[in-house]
Amino acid sequence: MDNTIGSKIRFLRNRDGYTQKELAEKLNIAKSTMSQYESNNRIPSDDLKIEIANLFNVSTDYLLGRTDGLVPVRDINQDLYDEHDYTAELKSLIDDEEFRTEFLDFEDWTDEEKRNILFAIRANRALREKNEKK
Q1: Residues 99-133: tens digit of each pLDDT
Q2: CA 132 to each of CA 125, 126, 127: distance values in angstroms, whole numbers, following the listed order
Q3: CA distances (Å), 30 to each of 22, 50, 77, in order?
Q4: Could you tell me if 62 and 8 are in contact, meaning their C-beta atoms sit under 8 angstroms apart?
Q5: Domain spanning 5-63 has what CATH number?
Q6: Within 10 Å of residue 54's Cβ, how many Cβ atoms?
């Protein structure tokens, strides 16, 4: 699969079993417009990109080719915003030998995986520094 928005939309549509007509109807657009999006002859508006991402439960970064990850956005983030015992989850991860082995074996990670972890660590450090100044 190439990395264009049209190929991503086509992939997601096929993955979820929609015809072009069915997806077009869900998005309140013409089937011919959907065809143009999938063939990269036309680019969806930003609002429609968000609607498509929400419908297929992927990030707009995925649609735009900034990431190949198909991890559902809601699945990753929802439990982080619900009431959650973060301390217990972190302790559980640290106590899990399989996790420690996987985490410490970062040389086999993709650049994207390394970047994500480094981003989280840097963001946490910046937040700590900000809170310490208060």
Answers
A1: 888 888 888 888 888 888 888 888 888 888 888 87
A2: 10, 10, 9
A3: 10, 18, 33
A4: yes
A5: 1.10.260.40
A6: 12
